[in-house]
C-alpha cells in the first residue's frame, strides 16, 4: 500500500515537472465584450502554439483602469493586455509598458505600413512605440436617407457648410419637433471630432498647457454651439432619450453621431419598411470630408513580464488579417489594418464602408496621461455653452485655465527632467 | 493598591497586543493618510518617488475652491438631511408595531424586517435597479395602474437621489429597529398604566412616555446613522455611478474618483480628512444637544 502511494506521488511529481518544462503560460487581460468573444480565438492560438497556454482574465470596462493601476502598484500586471489607447501615455509614464518597435521591425506579421496612420500614432509616446492597435473606434454619422431626400438634399453633405444647409432644410421642411441631428451633450466625442478636424493642436507648450482658446478649438466650438443655437440639435443627454434607436427610426432626427457598435444595434431594430432608408457617412469637415477621433484599444506587453516572447506571439496572432476579420465578424469591432478591410465580408458591407473611408483620416489626441480628465473638462465646458448659456469666449478661457491647472504637475516634472 | 514596576510591566504586557494591533492597523494608516494629504501624490509620484512634492494645506485649500467638491457635499448633506430622519422614523414605526401587544408572529416579522440589513448590498442593488427601471420596472408598472406617468427613477437628476435614499432606508432601517425595540422593552410598564389611569390617549402616551424614555437610545441611533449616512458610497457606486448630471456623487464617491480613477491620492486623502472633520463636527453638535437635555 505504502509503495503504491509513493509511486503515485512520484508520478505526480514527474507529471508536474513535465508540465513545467513543456509549456509557458501567459496571462492575458481583456475587457468588456472583447473578453467574452476572444476565448474562441485563443483556443486556436493554443492549437497552433502547443507550447503556450493562455490564461485569460475578463475585466469589466468600468473596473479596468483601477484594476490595472492597482496591479501596477502591487506588481501584479499580466504579460499581455488589451489597453484603451488613451491610457497608453499613462502607463508609459509609469514605465510599465515594454517598447515594441524592435519586435515590430522584426515581425513578418505586424506590418506598420498596413495600419491606418492615425490609429498607429496613438501608440507612440514621445516617439517610442508601446503597443499594436487591436481595433479602432471612430465616430461618424448615421443618417436617414429618406429624410434627407424629403428635404431636397441629394447627396450626403461633405463640408460643414453643406451640412449646415442640410440641417437647416431638414428642420424647415420637417414636421414640428423634428431635429436635424442628435449630439448627446453627455458625450465629448462630437466636440472632440470637430476640434480634431480643424487640424489645430489642442495643447501647446510641449503639451504643457491648454490651447482651447486658440483659433482651432474656437472654430470647432462655434460650429458645435451653432447647431444647438439654430435648434438643429436638442440639448439633451443620452439618458434623457429613452430609446435612441426608436427615435431615429421614428424620424425625430436625421443624423446621429455615433460609433461602430451601433451598426449592429440599428440593424437589429430597424423596421422592415425602413431597411434601406438609412446608412452611414463620414463626418463632414471644415472643407471636405473631415477627420475623426482615433479611439480603440491596443495590445501591449508589460515590462514586468518574464514571458514577453510568448506574449508577443499572441500579439502577432491577433494582428493577423484573417484573425482580425473573424474577430470583426464575431463582435463588429473595426480592424486597424487595410488588408483586413480587403476581405469581401468587410469590403462588401455598405454600412462599414464609411468607417473604412474615415479611418484613413483619424487623428490621435495628445498623448498625455491627463487626457481623459481634460476631455471631461472640455465636455463640461461645452455643456455650459449649449445648456448653461455661457459665452463661448468665457468657456474657452475658463477651460484653458482648468487644463493648465491639471497639467501643472506635468510641466513641473518636465522641468525637473530637463534640469537633470 | 500596589503599583510597583513589576505590576506595571505586567499591565503593559497584557495591553501590548491590543495596542500593537490598534497601532499598526489604525493609528499608522491614519497618520500615513494625513501625511499623504499634505503631498501631491499622484501617478507621476507613483512612477518616480522624486516627483512627490510637499504642498502643506494646498490640497485642502484647492478642494474648498473646487465646485465639484461642494456639489458632492451638497448631495451628501441632502442625503443625510432627508435620509436620517426618514430612516429613524421608519425604524421607530417598525419597532412600535413589533412591540405592540397586538402583534402576532413577532419573531417572524422581526426576522423579516431585519433581513435587508444582512443581505448583500450589490445583489439587492441589482434587484432594485430592476424594480425602478423606467420601462419595465415593477414600481412604474404599479404607478401606471393608478394612472401616474412613468418616472425615470435613476436617470432623472431630480429623482436619482430620492431613489438612492429609499434604497438606503430600506437597507438599513432594520438595524436601528432592533436597537429601538430593545429600548422600548426596557420602558417600565407601570408608567403606561399610570398614564392610562389618568386618561392619557395613546398619542399622549407616545409623546410623554415613549419618546422621553427612548431619548438616549434615539440619540445613539442618531449618531450612528448620521456618521454612517455621511459615508454614502456603495449605493451610488453600484446603482448610478454618480450619474445623472453628477446628482448622486457623494463626498466618498468623489474621493474614490479622485483617488482611484484619477489616482490623485494626496487630494483623495484630503477629502477623507475633510469628511472626517465634518462628521466629527455634526456628531459633536448632536451629542452636545443631547447633553443639554441630559440624555447622556
List strands and helices in order, with pairings:
The complex is a heterodimer of chains A (420) and B (296).
Chain A (H helix, E strand, L loop, with lengths): L1 H21 L1 E8 H17 L3 E8 L1 H13 L6 E5 L3 H6 L7 H6 L10 H5 L2 E2 L2 E2 L2 E6 L2 E5 H6 L9 H14 L7 E2 L6 H9 L5 E2 L4 E2 L4 H15 L14 H7 L4 E4 L2 H9 L8 E4 L2 E2 L2 E2 L2 E2 L1 E7 L6 H12 L1 H11 L6 H4 L2 H4 L2 H10 L2 E2 L7 H16 L5 H15 L1 H12 L1
Parallel strand pairs in A: 1-2, 1-3, 8-11, 15-17
Antiparallel strand pairs in A: 3-16, 4-5, 6-16, 7-11, 7-12, 9-10, 13-14
Helix pairs in contact in A: 2-14, 9-10, 18-19
Chain B lengths: L4 H32 L6 H5 L10 H7 L2 H33 L6 H13 L2 H11 L6 H8 L11 H29 L3 H9 L4 H29 L3 H6 L11 H11 L3 H28 L4
Describe the structure.
The complex is a heterodimer of chains A (420) and B (296). Chain A is of the alpha/beta class. Chain A has two domains: 11-138 and 294-348, D-Maltodextrin-Binding Protein, domain 2 (3-Layer(aba) Sandwich); 140-293 and 367-419, Periplasmic binding protein-like II (D-Maltodextrin-Binding Protein, domain 2), CATH 3.40.190. Chain A is built from 20 helices and 17 strands. Chain A has a five-stranded mixed β-sheet. A four-stranded mixed β-sheet of chain A has the order 8-11-7-12. The longest helix of chain A is centred in the first third of the chain and has 21 residues, at 2-22. Chain A is globular. The termini of chain A are far apart. The mean pLDDT of chain A is 90. With 296 residues, chain B is an all-alpha fold. Chain B has a single domain, classed as MetI-like fold (Orthogonal Bundle), CATH 1.10.3720. Helices cover 75% and strands 0% of the residues of chain B. Chain B has 13 helices and no strands. The longest helix of chain B has 33 residues, at 67-99. Chains A and B meet through helix 3 and helix 20 of A and helix 2 of B.
Amino acid at each position: 500500500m505504502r509503495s503504491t502511494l509513493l509511486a503515485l506521488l512520484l508520478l505526480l511529481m514527474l507529471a508536474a515537472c513535465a508540465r513545467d518544462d513543456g509549456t509557458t503560460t501567459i496571462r492575458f487581460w481583456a475587457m468588456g465584450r472583447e473578453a467574452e468573444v476572444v476565448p474562441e480565438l485563443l483556443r486556436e492560438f493554443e492549437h497552433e502554439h502547443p507550447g503556450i497556454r493562455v490564461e485569460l482574465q475578463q475585466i469589466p470596462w468600468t473596473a479596468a483602469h483601477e484594476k490595472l493601476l492597482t496591479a501596477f502598484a502591487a506588481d501584479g500586471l499580466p504579460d499581455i493586455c488589451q489597453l484603451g489607447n488613451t491610457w497608453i501615455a499613462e502607463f508609459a509614464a509609469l514605465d510599465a509598458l515594454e517598447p515594441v518597435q524592435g519586435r515590430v521591425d522584426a515581425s513578418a506579421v505586424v506590418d506598420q505600413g498596413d495600419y491606418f496612420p492615425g490609429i498607429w500614432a496613438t501608440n507612440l509616446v514621445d516617439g517610442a512605440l508601446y503597443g499594436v492597435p487591436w481595433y479602432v473606434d471612430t465616430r461618424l454619422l448615421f443618417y436617414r436617407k429618406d429624410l434627407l431626400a424629403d428635404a431636397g438634399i441629394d447627396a450626403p453633405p461633405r463640408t460643414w457648410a453643406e451640412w449646415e444647409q442640410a440641417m437647416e432644410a431638414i428642420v424647415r421642411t420637417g414636421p414640428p419637433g423634428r431635429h436635424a441631428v442628435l449630439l448627446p451633450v453627455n458625450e465629448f466625442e462630437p466636440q472632440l471630432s470637430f476640434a480634431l478636424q480643424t487640424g489645430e493642436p489642442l495643447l501647446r507648450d510641449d503639451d504643457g498647457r491648454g490651447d482651447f482658446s486658440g483659433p482651432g478649438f474656437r472654430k470647432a466650438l462655434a460650429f458645435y454651439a451653432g447647431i444647438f443655437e439654430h435648434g438643429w440639435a436638442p440639448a439633451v443627454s443620452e439618458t434623457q432619450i429613452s430609446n435612441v434607436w426608436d427615435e431615429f427610426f421614428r424620424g425625430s432626427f436625421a443624423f446621429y453621431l455615433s460609433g461602430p457598435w451601433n451598426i449592429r444595434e440599428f440593424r437589429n431594430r430597424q423596421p422592415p419598411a425602413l431597411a434601406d432608408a438609412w446608412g452611414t457617412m463620414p463626418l463632414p469637415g471644415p472643407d471636405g470630408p473631415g477627420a475623426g477621433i482615433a479611439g480603440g484599444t491596443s495590445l501591449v506587453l508589460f515590462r514586468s513580464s518574464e514571458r514577453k516572447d510568448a506574449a508577443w506571439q499572441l500579439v502577432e496572432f491577433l494582428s493577423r488579417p484573417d484573425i482580425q476579420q473573424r474577430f470583426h465578424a464575431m463582435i463588429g469591432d473595426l480592424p486597424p489594418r487595410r488588408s483586413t478591410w480587403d476581405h469581401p465580408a468587410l469590403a462588401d458591407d455598405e454600412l462599414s464602408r464609411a468607417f473604412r473611408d474615415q479611418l484613413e483620416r483619424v487623428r490621435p489626441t495628445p498623448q498625455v496621461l491627463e487626457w481623459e480628465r481634460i476631455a471631461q473638462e472640455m465636455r463640461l465646458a461645452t455643456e455650459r455653452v449649449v445648456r448653461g448659456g455661457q459665452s463661448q469666449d468665457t468657456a474657452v478661457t475658463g477651460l484653458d485655465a482648468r487644463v493648465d491647472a491639471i497639467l501643472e504637475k506635468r510641466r513641473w516634472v518636465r522641468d525637473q527632467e530637463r534640469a537633470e | 493598591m500596589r503599583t510597583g514596576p513589576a505590576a506595571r510591566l505586567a499591565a503593559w504586557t497584557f495591553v501590548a497586543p491590543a495596542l500593537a494591533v490598534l497601532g499598526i492597523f489604525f493609528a499608522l494608516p491614519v497618520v500615513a493618510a494625513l501625511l499623504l494629504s499634505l503631498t501631491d501624490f499622484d501617478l507621476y509620484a507613483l512612477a518616480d518617488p522624486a516627483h512627490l512634492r510637499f504642498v502643506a494645506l494646498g490640497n485642502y485649500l484647492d478642494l474648498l475652491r473646487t465646485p465639484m467638491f461642494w456639489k458632492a457635499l451638497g448631495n451628501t448633506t441632502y442625503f443625510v438631511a432627508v435620509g436620517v430622519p426618514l430612516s429613524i422614523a421608519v425604524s421607530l414605526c417598525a419597532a412600535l408595531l413589533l412591540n405592540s401587544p397586538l402583534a402576532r408572529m413577532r419573531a417572524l416579522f422581526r426576522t423579516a424586517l431585519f433581513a435587508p440589513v444582512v443581505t448583500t448590498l450589490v445583489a439587492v442593488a441589482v434587484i432594485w435597479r430592476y424594480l425602478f427601471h423606467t420601462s419595465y420596472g415593477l414600481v412604474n408598472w404599479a404607478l401606471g395602474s393608478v394612472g401616474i406617468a412613468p418616472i425615470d427613477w435613476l436617470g432623472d437628476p431630480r429623482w436619482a437621489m430620492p431613489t438612492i435614499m429609499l434604497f438606503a432606508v430600506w437597507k438599513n432601517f432594520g438595524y436601528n429597529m432592533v436597537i429601538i425595540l430593545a429600548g422600548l422593552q426596557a420602558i417600565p410598564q407601570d408608567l403606561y398604566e399610570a398614564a392610562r389611569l389618568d386618561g392619557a390617549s395613546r398619542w399622549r402616551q407616545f409623546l410623554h412616555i415613549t419618546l422621553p424614555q427612548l431619548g438616549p437610545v434615539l440619540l445613539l441611533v442618531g449618531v450612528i446613522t448620521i456618521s454612517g449616512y455621511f459615508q454614502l458610497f456603495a449605493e451610488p457606486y453600484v446603482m448610478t455611478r454618480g450619474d445623472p448630471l453628477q446628482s448622486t456623487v457623494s463626498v466618498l464617491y468623489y474621493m474614490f474618483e479622485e483617488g482611484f480613477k484619477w489616482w490623485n491620492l494626496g487630494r483623495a486623502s484630503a477629502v477623507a480628512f475633510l469628511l472626517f472633520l465634518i462628521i466629527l463636527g455634526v456628531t459633536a453638535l448632536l451629542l452636545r444637544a443631547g447633553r443639554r437635555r441630559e440624555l447622556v
